[in-house]
Amino acid sequence: MQKPNIIVKLSGAALRDKTSDAVLSGKKLVNLAKQLISLSKKYNIGVIVGGGNIWRGQDANANLYDIDQAHYMGMLATVINSIALKEVIKKQNAKACVYSLVDMPKVAYTYNLDDVKEHLNNGYICIFAAGTGSPYFSTDTGAALHAAEINAKCILVGKDGVDGVYSDDPNKNKNAKRFDKLTYDQIIKMDLKVMDMTSITFCKNNNIKLVVFNNNQDNGILKAVAGKTKTTIITK
Questions:
Q1: Residue 51: which of 144, 129, 159 has the closest Cα?
Q2: Contact present, 5 and 46 (Cβ < 8 Å)
Q3: Are 48 and 133 in contact (CB under 8 A)?
Q4: Rg of the chain over all Cα atoms, to the nearest angstrom
Q5: Interior CA angle at 215 toward 207 and 47, to 5°?
Q6: What does 67-99 look like in DSSP terms, one character per residue?
Q7: Tell me: the pLDDT tens digits for 180-236?
Q8: What is the rounded distance in angstroms from the CA atom of residue 220 to the CA atom of residue 55?
Q9: Following DSSP, what letter does each residue of the chain receive, concatenated?
Q10: What is the distance between the alpha carbons of residues 30 and 94, in angstroms, rounded to a whole number?
């Protein structure tokens, strides 16, 4: 029986070593790799990792960089994170590969959906780098796009230290309201900051469930799947 497909969307910021301010934490990468390998026993897994621990194109100084080039720099940051995660997974004696939406065949497979499906069905954890391959689109949109392409009905959205969706930034507003369940229409109406609105609309139109959880905890992915930690469930 073929395993169902699932997408795991991880914050690049969650990979940073906050004790030393290094852009990548080996401990966090190993923890993520072990969780993904465990999850792969029940699911075919696609992974999208942000690049915020290295570079955020949307935050670039417009006086220094053209915005499209700043976004391409951000895409390259996601490639670095994706290769790092792939290597750590392989060191755990599991199968993983990186597909880049920007062609760079010396370091990643060029994205081809048929090849992706074959790798998934053969037990590889497939990591999708470089967003959608185009500037102005976030890795959130990339996650939604890949989910639709591989017929994944759920995206696990790991946040850096935030255990779901709130009415405001809970780190700045102690009175922010936390939601256990939401619809896509509520997200849009209240303009809640969970993923960008392009990805939210895409998920709504393709009936893809979102499970938002705190990835900055031990075994956060596995706990979210098992319902053993706080999450926000977003459905149509």
A1: 129
A2: yes
A3: no
A4: 17
A5: 55
A6: HHHHHHHHHHHHHHHHHHHHHHHHHTT--EEEE
A7: 999 999 999 999 988 999 999 999 999 999 999 999 888 999 999 999 999 999 998
A8: 24
A9: -PPPEEEEEE-GGGGSBTTTTBS--HHHHHHHHHHHHHHTTTSEEEEEE--TTT--GGGS-TTTS-HHHHHHHHHHHHHHHHHHHHHHHHHTT--EEEEESS--TTTSEEP-HHHHHHHHHTT-EEEEESTTSSTT--HHHHHHHHHHHTT-SEEEEEESS--SEESS-TTT-TTPPEESEEEHHHHHHHT-SSS-HHHHHHHHHTT-EEEEEE-SSTTHHHHHHHT-S-EEEEE-
A10: 12
Q: Give the tens place of pLDDT for each residue, 152-183.
A: 999 999 998 899 999 999 989 999 999 999 99
Amino acid at 14: A
- The Cα-based distances of 94 to 16, 45, 160, 225 in angstroms read 23, 12, 25, 20
Q: Are 218 and 31 in contact (CB under 8 A)?
A: yes
Average pLDDT over residues 129-157: 95
Q: Return the amino acid letter for 232.
A: T
Residue with tokens 């959130």: 140
Decide: pTM greater than 0.90. Answer: yes
Distance CA(78)–CA(52), nearest Å, equals 8
Amino acid at 60: A
The pair of three-digit structure tokens given for residue 60, joined into one six-digit string = 């670039």
